[in-house]
Design goal:
Shape: flat
Number of domains: 3
Largest sheet: 3 strands, antiparallel
Radius of gyration: 30 Å
Number of strands: 13
Structural class: alpha+beta
Strand content: 15-25%
Number of helices: 11
Strand order of the largest sheet: 1-13-10
Distance between the termini: 65 Å
Length: about 375
């Protein structure tokens, strides 16, 4: 029986959670269409509608999930008066084009990370699909010494060694299969990666954005307070009171004094308060750094790149539900039209997609922890 469509190679479907083959919008769109019956069933949906549904799913997912927790140390001299510190640019500290503080805060450097600090992706590797006897290398002193026992099936070789073997005997190339170790999605198109940097999203062609700042600690580059702090002295006194007898502060006195010191910092504005605007990506401090200079460390949540987000199962299921709603609405316009053979278009997909959409939203918002609806349930409690 001849098929009317082209069969996709099996290698395109060999995928796991972390070794995922979903790398572009179009590949995810193919999975959605096949889930709805394509190519055996015609689907009343345009490619732009399908991509729009995937885009909505990505936007929704990144609002409540799809982030990583990362840390950064910064110099207070980068602070712009009455404006703040631009965090999304500062998370690209490896960019050598940001050679001045003015460029770092204003983002006047050429768009994208500099070439010097790209991470080289591994070259293609080659797998031996069959065994090769050592006698095949007898004419080569170097190769016969390297492969004294020959080559076993499924043994891995890098590009350099593969080139050496095939240069010696070109017919041996049929005994190897090339494997692409990593690909890069560049504005939605999957290509072989030559460069890669995780602080940059090559699909949106912009830096990854900070979602929120969860913690801030201020340090100092000079002065005795970097080592001999009052808190440290009180802690030492508390330790000695228990280790050497009834001397110095006890634990209750230390706790009471520490509470007073925290209140003093707030009342006198000794400890800075921070405010982060996720839209402008500026972190503001109150009071603002003036003549003082310090180094601070912040803990932030950053959005994951799109190439990671579209691999998520929730994104696929939500885009599938939106596509079902789209198709259901189109078919609803022709619900009363009889087709050849007396059949009619099925408009039930609208209600099925709406139900699935509501379930997925509830899972995302009310999962085992907010924003991470696909987390495993708690296995035990300590109370």
């Amino acid at each position: 029986m001849a098929l009317a469509c082209e069969i996709t190679p099996l290698s395109a479907f060999l995928s796991t959670n972390l070794n995922n083959k979903i790398e572009t919008f179009d590949r995810l769109g193919d999975r959605i269409k096949r889930s709805l019956g394509y190519p055996l069933v015609s689907l009343e949906i345009h490619t732009d509608q399908l991509r729009e549904n995937i885009q909505i799913a990505v936007e929704y997912f990144t609002k409540y999930a799809g982030y990583t927790r990362e840390y950064m140390i910064f110099d207070s001299n980068l602070y712009e008066d009455n404006k703040g510190i631009r965090l999304d640019l500062l998370y690209t500290l490896a960019n050598s084009d940001l050679d001045t503080n003015a460029k770092k805060v204003a983002g006047t450097n050429p768009r994208g990370p500099s070439v010097e600090f790209y991470g080289e992706t591994p070259e293609s590797i080659f797998t031996a699909t069959s065994s090769i006897l050592s006698s095949a290398f007898a004419a080569s002193t170097t190769l016969s010494a390297t492969f004294t026992d020959g080559i076993d099936q499924f043994e891995l070789f890098d590009k350099t060694l593969y080139s050496t073997i095939t240069s010696f005997n070109s017919s041996l190339s049929s005994a190897f299969k090339q494997n692409k170790r990593k690909t890069l999605s560049l504005e939605g198109v999957s290509t072989d990666a030559t460069t890669f940097q995780n602080v940059y999203d090559y699909d949106v062609m912009d830096y990854r954005k900070v979602m929120s700042v969860t913690d801030f600690e201020q340090g100092s580059s000079s002065g005795i307070n970097t080592l001999f702090t009052l808190e440290q002295t009180l802690a030492q006194q508390t330790y000695f009171s228990y280790a050497l007898g009834n001397y110095g502060f006890d634990l209750v006195s230390w706790y009471s004094l520490k509470e007073w010191m925290d209140t003093r910092e707030k009342m006198l504005a000794i400890k800075k308060d921070i405010h982060f605007d996720e839209r402008t990506q500026y972190l503001r401090m109150y009071p603002q750094p003036k003549q003082e200079r310090f180094y601070g460390v912040i803990s932030c949540y950053l959005e994951r790149p799109i190439r990671d987000i579209i691999k998520e199962q929730w994104v696929y299921e939500y885009a599938l539900a939106l596509s079902m709603i789209t198709i259901g609405r189109v078919r609803g316009k022709f619900g009363s039209v009889n087709l050849l053979g007396g059949g009619s278009l099925n408009a039930d997909m609208l209600s099925e997609g709406s139900t699935k959409k509501a379930e997925l939203e509830q899972k995302l918002l009310e999962g085992s922890s907010p924003g991470m609806g696909d987390n495993d349930p708690t296995l035990f409690f300590v109370g």
